[in-house]
Amino acid sequence: MSRRNKIAVFIMLMIGVAIFIYESRDLNFKQLQQTILQLHWGWLLVALAFMLGSWVVETFVVQIFIKGEHDRLPFWQAFRVPLVEQLFNAITPFSSGGQPAQLVALMQSGIEGGRASSVLLMKFIVYQFMVLVNFILTIFIGFDQVSKRFGALAIFIVFGFIIHVVVIVGLLLVMYYYKFTKRLVNLGTRFAGIFVGKKRQQTWQAQLDEKIDTFYAESLALKGDKRRVIKAGLLTLGQLMLYYAVPFFVLLSLGVTGVNLVEVMVLHVMIVMIVSLFPIPGGAGGAEYSFKTLFATYVASPSKLILGMLLWRLLTYYLGMLLGIVALALVPKKTGAVTEKKVG
């Protein structure tokens, strides 16, 4: 890990500590200590298992896209990919470092750079579609409840939804209206050139053309292998379900009763949408505020609410950072995808 990345990890940890101290400023620490002693550790272990399970399922998705006619990537080498992704998503604005970090992890396992880029692009496309499917479902199930109780947060949720829709529409345009999309993008870069200068405009246009060409080539591969895409899509849906269920078991570990799994998952989806709008790595501050606001209806005790927020962040954010650091340090000794021998 570079010195810059180490500094970023340290800063995010300090921000997390500062947020927890600030949120705990009015708490009775004896009551907080009592709440910790009364935790139901069994449910907390289930929450941990669901979080780890989501990364395991994502590993299977990586293996599906890597696997060729006779090639496969060993599980432990593939498992590094989502963990390294978690680390760099956590320390970069808008999770922008996750994709490049995954590319490095795959190349360290011996996957050729071009193929690794293709795998990650296909994984990204499937993930975005499944996120949108989840969000549309939750909009129908629980948005009315959120909008009535928390109007300000509802606005952020709508913005998050719009951003994801724009991303999906852009992907579909490239997949099915390739030439039209290139003309549209070129028109946009020419307009931007008025403000940024011709040289920068030409650089942007060349970069965007390359990305569009690459994505279009991969979209053809996706459309030509529907079985693999469907399998990866279902696994990604399962991955997201495991992740969205984590707060439910955190609440059970606090002894909170009367919680509904579907409602909690809906609220977690909403939080993720809100966090995606914050440029601060990990949505620090916004994530904690959203959790407190949305889950205050379930948790009456301030000490339980703050502890629940801390446990949720430890499992869904800081645990990924820690395991990502370990995964980054454990570079595979034997590189290269394993070739399966033909039988007979």
TrEMBL record:
It comes from Lacticaseibacillus brantae DSM 23927. It is found in: Cell membrane. It is a multi-pass membrane protein. It comes from the Bacteria. InterPro entries: L-PG_synthase/AglD. It catalyses: L-lysyl-tRNA(Lys) + a 1,2-diacyl-sn-glycero-3-phospho-(1'-sn-glycerol) = a 1,2-diacyl-sn-glycero-3-phospho-1'-(3'-O-L-lysyl)-sn-glycerol + tRNA(Lys). The chain crosses the membrane at residues 7-22, 42-66, 124-143, 149-178, 232-254, 266-289, 310-331. Keywords: Antibiotic resistance, Cell membrane, Lipid metabolism, Membrane, Transferase, Transmembrane, Transmembrane helix. Belongs to the LPG synthase family. Its EC number is 2.3.2.3. This is Phosphatidylglycerol lysyltransferase. GO terms for biological process: lipid metabolic process; response to antibiotic. Catalyzes the transfer of a lysyl group from L-lysyl-tRNA(Lys) to membrane-bound phosphatidylglycerol (PG), which produces lysylphosphatidylglycerol (LPG), a major component of the bacterial membrane with a positive net charge. LPG synthesis contributes to bacterial virulence as it is involved in the resistance mechanism against cationic antimicrobial peptides (CAMP) produces by the host's immune system (defensins, cathelicidins) and by the competing microorganisms. One of its GO terms (cellular component) is plasma membrane. The gene is mprF. It holds the Pfam family LPG_synthase_TM. It is an enzyme of class 2 (transferase). GO terms for molecular function: phosphatidylglycerol lysyltransferase activity.
